[in-house]
Amino acid sequence: MSGRWVDPYTDPVIDDLSVNPIVLESRIGGLHLKPAWTKNLGYYDVLKYVAGVLRIFIGLFFHLNRQERERLLWMEKRIESEFGVRYPLVRNAVDALAWHHALVPVYSWLLRRLRVRTLVIICSYGKEAWIEACRRYRVRTIELQHGTISKYHPGYHYPEGTNKHYTPDEFWAFGEYWTKTASFPVDIRLRSNFGFRYLERAVGALGNVKDDGYLLVISQGVVGHRLSRFIVDALQFLSDEIRIGYKLHPGERLNWKDEYPWLAEQIGRIEVFEGEEPGLYELMGRARWQLGVSSTALYEGMRLGCRTILVELPSVEYMEEVVASGCAVLIKTAADLARAMRDCPEPEGRMFFDKDDSLLADLNSVGTAEASRYD
């Protein structure tokens, strides 16, 4: 977009607001991506540096009580017995708590200085210091969904008998589906249907022109070896009229020809996309089918009208509710692909992404909304 870096979770929201938010960004992968599309963008790295100095002094005097230490030592032993790994849980817990106690007063100072009334965050886990600082000064906290959620996600799923203390006041989901996929902490107010505005813009721009013979493979690094081998093995069962695109994950682009030589040998039959262009949404808008395992992008593909086929590989369990809902077909072998392409249903993408503009009006009503973007 005009050669600028766009945050897909916050920038489309900010563009639609009638108020001017203050946007705070920490370093992303050790860097600040510039030039940024975001307006009123500020960096708070210096606050972390200040907290880092405080942490040193806090760490000298901070101690766990007896009950806490005994509990953590018991957990250390359980981890070692279950996984065969010695993890210094006590030491790391002390370090994390020292960081927390250093960050809270620093963030509190910033909230007072800016007179913040509402803080919007992306990915609340790891941001507990922000949440405690907001509670101290009665600042409303809202988390916007940034990815998939399931009962296997430790950041959101808290089964009966467990809970989390430092949680945002509200969680605004892409759609109602996501609020039912996990047992959220009891103190969070769940608000459905905020939507994913970045995706909705793509839906409007692309229209709905499908290539009836096009299959798009959505790769993931964790299963890339097996998924790429799977689609190559499936070629013998597919008609030559089926055109296949293979969209690499950014983490696979550098060495994919060495890592997946069997895929490189099929360049004439499979078109491998290793760069930013064409964009993923553009490919999804074209594809009649998409094939993958558990990538978040698969949900976006369903919103863009792709019939969805999942391969039974590690992590596909994250998609079990999607399969149970009838929105996708699960296959085990390469020989199953042709049949699945005939049988898989048209997706109902709105069950995952559905926009309710009343929530945007809620942010506007704050008067001066504050949006925060984190690494």
Report what the structure shows.
This protein has two domains: 11-195 and 356-373, no CATH class; 207-351, Rossmann fold (3-Layer(aba) Sandwich). It is globular and about 70 Å long. A seven-stranded parallel β-sheet has the order 2-1-13-3-4-5-6, with helices on one face. The protein has a six-stranded parallel β-sheet with strand order 9-8-7-10-11-12, sandwiched between helices. Helix 2 packs across helix 4 and helix 4 crosses helix 5. Helix 7 (224-234) links the parallel strand 7 (211-218) and strand 8 (243-247). By secondary structure, the chain is of the alpha/beta class. It is built from 14 helices and 13 strands.
Write the layout of secondary structure elements.
Layout: H1 11-16, E1 22-25, E2 41-43, H2 45-61, H3 66-83, H4 89-114, E3 118-122, H5 128-136, E4 140-144, E5 170-172, E6 189-191, H6 197-206, E7 211-218, H7 224-234, E8 243-247, H8 256-259, H9 261-264, E9 270-273, H10 280-286, E10 287-292, H11 297-303, E11 307-311, H12 320-324, E12 328-331, H13 337-343, H14 357-365, E13 370-373
Parallel strand pairs: 1-2, 1-13, 3-4, 3-13, 4-5, 5-6, 7-8, 7-10, 8-9, 10-11, 11-12
